[in-house]
Amino acid sequence: MAVEKMSIAKALNESLRLALDTDPKVLIMGEDVGKLGGVFRITDGLQKDFGEERVIDTPLAESGIVGTAIGLALRGYRPIVEIQFDGFVFPAYDQIVTQLAKMHARALGKVKLPVVVRIPYGGGIGAVEHHSESPEALFAHVAGLKVVSPSNASDAYWMMQQAVQSDDPVIFFEPKRRYWDKGEVDTESIPGPLHRAVTAREGSDLTLVAYGPMVKVCLEAAAAAQEEGKSVEVLDLRSMAPIDFDAVQRSAEKTGRVVVVHEAPVFYGSGAEIAARITERCFYHLEAPVLRVGGYSVPYPPARLEDEYLPGLDRVLDAVDRSLAY
């Protein structure tokens, strides 16, 4: 067993390196991914080792980057596209939702588009406008796209491998404020299927459901609640499309209370679908309504206010208390 301790950024870099080394049809494309190694250095050293024809610095044109990746995929390549920041994806949104997501169905299953679109997302880094968005629900709503987000280094390493090997397009949201969080990665043992939720912490009184950057916050909340005698389970979804509703249901039936947490605005967020589905499935097991904690329905604020905007420990614990008070 080869276990290494590495940051999420390093795990992604090692996973991309392995993908390039394993399959000559794998390409990486994006703004500054080559010589610079990406603004977060996720692709650091890859162009040097694999050449400019495999790790391609593109013009500043997200629609063109994704459109080119679609053409390459049609010719048998497996492109990995980097969108430099979350708010920059919208010029490519048309290509993603009208072409990338639809081609498999349009061709009656005869054409596959194995494209991975990497998007650093979320706040917490003190960035300027358009650099701290959480647009995952926009993509999870689109049939034909897989949407995933790792919360730790091990998942970052293995979920990237699985995304690259997928014959369907995958939107891979990387929690940018967690890039430097470290964890153990077993590079020889696949942890499980790409879209399976995992229990990050066992509990019996209430379930916190989260993904990506909010999993760490929920684990901290569960630890704080434990000091007050409350047993809180944390479920890491890992995938927003498809969602492992069976895992959420099992936990909901076990604890009787569910709080869904994400950075994105609560209004029309992923938590709304989870709350509705779990209410349908678990109505007679629930001891309280499914509650949601998330961002506010406003444009992402300037950096000096983002601590007020982002769901933190206090807001999660407040939801825990409200749920347990029913």
Automatic annotation (TrEMBL):
Keywords linked to the UniProt accession: Oxidoreductase
GO molecular function, one term: magnesium ion binding
Top-tier EC class: oxidoreductase
Cofactor(s) this protein requires: thiamine diphosphate
Coiled coil: none
Residues in Transketolase-like pyrimidine-binding domain copies: 6-181
Residues making up the signal peptide according to the UniProt record: none
SUPFAM superfamilies: Thiamin diphosphate-binding fold (THDP-binding), TK C-terminal domain-like
CDD domains: TPP_PYR_E1-PDHc-beta_like
Protein name per UniProt: 3-methyl-2-oxobutanoate dehydrogenase (2-methylpropanoyl-transferring)
Species, as recorded: Streptomyces parvus
